[in-house]
Amino acid sequence: MKRFLWAAVAVVTVMTMQAKKPVMPPFLKHGDTIAVLSLSSTPKAGVVEKGVAALKQWGFKTKVGKHAQDEWRTFAGTPEQRRDDLLAALRDPSVKAILSSRGGYGAANVLALIPLDTLAKYPKWIIGYSDITGYLSAEYRAGHMSLHANMCGHLADTGGTDQESLWLRDILLGKLPAYHVPGHEYNHPGKATGILLGGNMSVYGDLAGSPYDFFAPEVIDYNDVIIFIEDVGENIAHLDRMLQHLRLRGILDKVQAVIVGRFDDCPPSRGYASTLEMVHDYLKDYDIPVCYDFPVGHDENWNYPLIVGCPVELNVGMDKVSLKFVP
After folding, report:
1. Please, what sign has the CA dihedral across residues 246, 319, 166, 150?
2. What is the Cα Rg of the chain in Å?
3. Total-model pTM
């Protein structure tokens, strides 16, 4: 009997904890400081400097991580050095947001060195995509929202004046966009509300079973969730296995909707005319809204900033799709 009571208390505690809405980090104001770090791979020459210049044009101050341009194997420093840069930025009260210079590879070996309760102490915007999905997933499990968005490479290319970059700037300053995009022939119409979670399939798939996994049962089972998926440079067989993994984990049975982004440099094969056709085969029998070719992925000219962990309203039609953030 005593064992049963303890088990019941544990279940209620988990449900209460995971039902609590994640915290949106404080918005910035002009003159605030953004730290530029290389949380995964080493950036190309000039990317950090040009990205910093764009942030300054937006009216922000910047601090560049000590190891932001280091080279250790293919990484921007050892796991310990990248961890130290991240912790320094989190602990620095003058830093209000953290922008990664690029993605690449290496998030998991840094996260292994940072407990979730340490991340939980510092609600600051972490910004990036691709391999940075790992950090965004960890931030959600630590109780914070974050930003799946372009990084220094895109700011370096455009000077921060393109629409995707201006939306990122506006979000940081507290102005949340509402997106309206064209429909797609595979769309499954409908409306849904829920917490927006997702990013790079390869990255969050590798976090399954870890404390940093935002698709863990204690999240998916106790929240209405809308997921978004994208990837790059994968073959059809690997993408098929990742979708099967989502299905076998029960995630596709429990979400309120799916936003399918782009799968750049993922050529069709195995009898499929396109990657989206293969994804459609997986999702067509689920009675939930699904939209295809939403602007999220590795094409930085087609990668809208998305607030991970934020409640959203999704309206999917055959001719158009709208996504609204409702924190």
Report:
1. positive
2. 19
3. 0.93
Separation of alpha carbons 184 and 299, rounded Å: 18
For residue 278, count CB atoms less than 10 angstroms from its CB and return exposed for 0-12, middle for 13-18, buried for 19 or more: buried
Beta-strand runs (E) in the chain: 33-37, 61-64, 95-100, 125-128, 146-148, 178-182, 190-200, 225-232, 257-264, 290-291, 306-308, 311-316, 320-325
pLDDT of 136 strictly over 80 = yes
* CA 261 – CA 230 distance, rounded (Å): 5
Tokens 């050095």 map to which residue?
A: 81
Q: Rounded to an integer, what distance in angstroms lies between the CA atom of residue 246 and that of residue 107?
A: 21
pLDDT given at position 8: 39
Query: How distant, in Å, are the alpha carbons of 130, 193, 276 from that of 309?
Result: 17, 12, 25
pLDDT beyond 70 at 246: yes
Q: What is the pLDDT, as a whole number, of residue 308? A: 98
Give CA torsion, residues 45, 51, 53, 58, to 10 deg.
180
The model's pLDDT over 140-186, given as tens digits with 9 standing for 90+, comes to 999 999 999 999 999 999 999 999 999 999 999 999 999 999 999 99
Domains of the chain from N-terminus onward? 33-172 (3.40.50.10740), 178-325 (3.50.30.60)
Q: How much is the average pLDDT of 249-259?
A: 97
